[in-house]
Amino acid sequence: MRADKARNRDAVLAAAGRLFDAAADPDDVSMDAVAAAAGVGKGTIFRGFDDRRGLIRALYDERAAHAFAAPVPAGGEPAEAALDLLLRTWRFKEQNRVLALALERDGSGSPYRNSSYDRLHAQLATLTARARGTADADFLAHALLAAVRSDLVEHLHAHPGTDPRAGLRALVRSIFATGDDNAQEPPS
Length: 188
Description:
The protein is mainly alpha-helical. It has 2 domains: 3-50, Arc Repressor Mutant, subunit A, CATH 1.10.10; 69-176, no CATH class. It has 10 helices and no strands. It has helices at residues 3-22, 31-38, 42-49, 52-67, 78-95, 97-105, 115-132, 137-146, 150-157, 164-176. Helix 3 (42-49) packs across helix 4 (52-67). It is elongated and about 55 Å long. The model is unreliable at 181-186 (pLDDT under 50).
């Protein structure tokens, strides 16, 4: 990548990140605002990211790559690893609230069609298969990820009496229970 193209990409992602972090709603962040904040022309953004959805995905994927850089441990209890992954996802979406909402709301920019979702799903499916076998692992991984959708994170943010972490623990416990009385409960 040419140095000026890389510099522009970095400037656009940094500007978009600041704008999404400061916004109250995803619709508050326009391509014009990003271009102005990055000090580039709007055409530069379109050449680098194709469209608003491409910009949102690039920023989301960049942040997710940093947030989830530490891999899920291969050993240990699958339930503990799954709970850790879900809690990290919840925190990530809380910290990147408007950006995560923008990704999930953006029409065909489905939350199910991005590399971050694919990575999380694969990890949860593997953990679920280790605990329960492969029969329903794929579906159950999708169901677990539904519990950390951005719109749910946003909805529960307005309900301070709800403890999503306790709910995630209970959900993981119910999915990863093997019927074995000696099954370990995920940590609190």
